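Quick one: examine this chain and its backbone structure tokens and tell me how the chain folds. Here goes:
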Amino acid sequence: MTSFEEAKTEETVTCLHLTFYHPGQAEKMMFRCLDFCKREQVRADDTAKFGRDSSVCHYNLMDTRVSRIQFSLQFYRKLHTSEYGFEIKNLSKKTKLTVNQTELGHLNKIDLPWKCIICFGDYQILAEVQEGESVDYFETHLHLAQAPILQERCLPCLPSLQRIPENGISPSIFLSQGKSPTEIDENEL
């Protein structure tokens, strides 16, 4: 047998692609401490933290409006499966975090969808999970968007951006009153 035949089988690595956008990124350069050039390995048992405190956060956002620790991402294995995923937790006491249309308050956490938009303040982050098999580590690959992610992807971050029907009445009005819309015959009007 050759050394090629005896070599260990390479396993694929889960990679979390994160694309960052802020409308003032050109002037304020809040992403200057992020490395957009290469993939980075993160140990599976480490928590990836994002915020402005460089002594705690590996991913630093240089903006005084960002919390010391804004949010964290934890890699985990799903129960009774061989699948892996990420959990996102809002660590900011002042700023709510939105994942697609789910709003997270302080210390709230949810599973990160395989493709989603994370928003807080004016920040927009497109997160895309590329599945892998490695149990020891995962990788992050950071990207910088030149245009707003919400407009590009047409995935609203805020529930207030829902379409309103032609009659001008939003279905959420009925839901907030505990009533559901009813159909009325034209002749009954």
